[in-house]
Amino acid sequence: ADYGPSWREHRRFALMTLKNFGLGKRSMEERILEEISHVCTHLEVNAGKSIDPQTLFHNASCDIICSILFGSRYEYEHEFFQTMIKMMSENSKIANGPWGMVYDTMPLLRNLPLPYQKALRDYNTVNMYVSGIVNEHRATRVPGEPRDVIDCYLDEMEKDKAQVSFEDRHKMPYTQAVIHECQRMASTLPLSVFHCTTRDTKLMGYQIPKGTLIIPDLSSLLHNVKCNIESAKRNQR
Known about the structure:
Elements: H1 5-20, H2 26-45, H3 53-69, H4 79-95, H5 98-105, H6 116-140, H7 149-159, H8 173-186, E1 195-196, E2 201-203, E3 206-208, E4 213-214, H9 218-222, H10 225-236
Helix pairs in contact: 2-3, 4-6
């Protein structure tokens, strides 16, 4: 992450949304207790058999996360659910091990067929599956009535498709430059609006009495090379 404006905006949105879905609140405890009931059921069904507790608690914690992100949990025997947990566990080991350090510190080696390539393949596999869930949410969601984090994200993306407002102009220097240049070339009001002096004044050595009609020649100004260069420099600053 570059920790720039985009990262800060995503972080703000993620924290706000997760809090709305119970992070740090009693409603999160309810999700956990609900999942514990599934853990107990699994233990009862497998009474007298050997089980891997690490796998069991991976299943439980991942299901709690899935219920927040996707709006539903998976059965522990679900094929892709198990595959996803396995891939994420392996990727965590790669990312926190020596091959992760190699990938981060030596970008020139990233295209070589080294072990960290498996982590990238696993990531793409999970990403494709989640993209399918997102597309399903797009087809079934009710705007403004989010069922999970994905729906909240889609609602937020829809908000960003409001038209550009006047306040956005400071973030659009190229658009402003094009508009200003079009106005300069068009010279739609070559003599601008007539004015009148409100008091006796002096301009460039000329005495202008109060009440004198002033007719500015904007066309000469808009096509003055020196003035345009100075204006461009000010805009860049």
